[in-house]
Write a structure and sequence with these properties.
Structural class: alpha/beta
Strand order of the largest sheet: 3-2-1-4-5-8-6-7
Order of helices and strands: HHHEHEHEHEHEHHEEE
Radius of gyration: 17 Å
Number of strands: 8
Largest sheet: 8 strands, mixed
Distance between the termini: 36 Å
Shape: globular
Length: 248
């Protein structure tokens, strides 16, 4: 990792997820919670982006001709299905093992995704731009939310969209996302999250607004213990998503 990259990421967080790389695509493995969460994330992204870009919701590939950046892509759990929907997807992650697994899986699946071991700041220096920029379950793992969001939002083209998902900094989030998910149910390895790194919706929205984007949608994401599925809700006390747009 270069000196510049090390200044922009939390090395302990990178190493943590690097160790999980081989298990990313196992739906019953240590990344099972993300596999459970993926359907509601994909539904939200498809519905929100179809509406925002005026695309045909019945189309198999409604996003042909649009570019998408998946920041903190891991092994590609979101990148691949979004590429299947027509986006020209670039997935970036500072964890090299994750990128290697993502590349290998996409090649086996025959899905065209460009994966790179770089940070958002690298793409900023390259003057890159995308129609859609995602930061899903990422901001709670970075050293500085403000710096990270500033870089991420600067990559959104005029008329483009930024979507972020994270965990609220509440007592309920501590009880459910850390005590429950990590220590009691063992859904996640102990130490996956730190409560003091959780981000409130107001903090996240302020960082997005500083990048000259306007939040147009806020959604809570809740787990139903009876069905074992995640769904959208007004309740943003634990998991939530924000969508923001830049003026054309």
């Amino acid at each position: 990792m270069t000196e510049r990259m090390s200044e922009r990421v939390d090395q302990a967080e990178v190493e943590k997820f690097d160790r999980l790389a081989a298990d990313w695509w196992n739906p019953e493995g240590r990344m099972k919670p993300l596999h459970k969460l993926n359907p509601v994330r994909l539904r939200y992204l498809r519905d929100t982006l179809v509406a925002r870009f005026g695309r045909d919701p019945r189309a198999i590939r409604p996003f042909d001709g649009l570019t998408l950046l998946d920041i903190g892509c891991g092994a590609g759990l979101l990148s691949e299905p979004l590429a299947r929907l027509g986006f020209a997807v670039t997935g970036i992650d500072p964890a090299g093992n994750n990128v290697d697994v993502a590349k290998a899986h996409a090649e086996r699946a025959g899905v065209p995704v460009t994966y790179r071991k770089v940070t958002a700041e690298t793409l900023v220096s390259e003057q890159a731009g995308f129609d859609v920029v995602l930061a899903m379950e990422v901001v709670e793992h970075v050293p500085s939310v403000q710096d990270f969001v500033a870089a991420a939002t600067s990559l959104v083209k005029p008329g483009g969209i930024f979507v972020g998902a994270t965990i609220n900094r509440t007592k309920r989030a501590f009880a459910l996302a850390i005590v429950g998910a990590e220590h009691v149910l063992r859904w996640l390895p102990v130490g996956t999250h730190s409560w003091d790194k959780f981000v409130t919706p107001d903090e996240f929205e302020a960082a997005i607004a500083a990048g000259d984007l306007q939040v147009f949608d806020r959604q809570g994401v809740v787990f139903n213990p009876f069905t074992g599925a995640w769904g959208l809700a007004q309740d943003m006390a634990v998991n939530y998503m924000l969508a923001a747009g830049r003026e054309p």
